[in-house]
Amino acid sequence: MLAAAAVWLWGMGGAAEVARWAAEGQREAQGLLARALRALRGGEPGALAALLGLCFAYGFFHAAGPGHGKMVIGGYGVARRVPVLRLAGLAIAASLAQAMTAVVLVYGGIGLLSWGRAQLVGVAEDVFAPLSYVFVAALGGWLAVRGARGLWRTRRPAHHAGADHGTHSHGDAPCGHCGHRHAPSLSEAAEVRSLRDAVAVIAAIAARPCTGAMFVLILTWQMGLTMAGVAGALAIGIGTATVTVAVGVAAATLREGAVMRMQGNAALRMMSTLELMAGLVVGLLAAQVALTLI
Asked: Do the Cβ atoms of 169 and 182 come closer than 8 Å?
């Protein structure tokens, strides 16, 4: 099924069809959003609920098209053995942070710098978009380096033991001669080692403000509906998160399927290999996009 999906997406033009469908959904949602905002300014009953629902739908269609958020969450889900709920939390936090980046940019640009819509969109596309892909490329490189280091560590037990003691340490058990473990345990390898991972993932996604959130924020600013604009931007973030969470769950499921039958150093080698490969793919794709945008 995965092979068939890959052939359809990249070999038969399926990705272009998905992108076209998402773009049409975004355009339709934008027209409905403008009407909902006029209804809200006119004080019509249920206008705020309708606005938030449309913002959620816009976020979903926006995330269904090409974007770096799915690349980061999917790549990280394949590269690191992260619990599904934690990965979903990262996806939601990153989407909301991306919406808040739009809030800061729009309100800061209009309120402090007196920028217009063209200037705001220009800064988002010309500065923040390339910067976000640079961050994604750096994240991919970081994952690739960690994967390579992990592969090297899995080779050290046999080399170390064979050279010094003539024996081997297996799995995560301590060496019988020196009393030290020469490779991390599976549980240690599965942990997110620090808050650094979460910050890097969220920053790579949030660096580029959501264009749909900017559209809503600019319109609500002009209409004097600033709080509705903030709520709408967050609703767009939640809509975006529904897609990135699904991508993260799929990535984590694929990863677990690859390592579930393995134990000890074999599992560690597979996890390090996945981290290396995912990091290289994410890093190279993001670097290519960043070079085209700069």
From this structure: yes
Per-residue pLDDT 10s for the chain (294 aa) are 555 555 555 555 555 666 666 677 767 777 788 888 888 888 888 889 999 998 998 888 877 766 668 888 888 888 887 888 888 999 999 999 999 999 999 999 988 888 888 888 888 888 888 888 898 889 889 989 988 988 888 775 544 444 444 444 444 444 454 444 444 454 544 454 567 788 888 998 998 888 888 988 998 998 889 999 999 999 999 999 998 998 888 888 888 777 777 776 777 788 888 888 888 888 888 888 888 877
70: which residues sit within 8 A by CB, 6+ positions away? Answer: 63, 243, 244, 247
3-state secondary structure 113-179: HCCCHHHHHHHHHHHHHHHHHHHHHHHHHHHHHHHHHHHHHHHHHHHHHHHHCCCCCCCCCCCCCCC
The residue among 122, 138, 287, 141 whose CA lies nearest residue 214 is: 122
Burial 112-140 (b: 16+ CB within 10 A, else e): eeebebeebbebbeeebbbbbbbbbbbbb
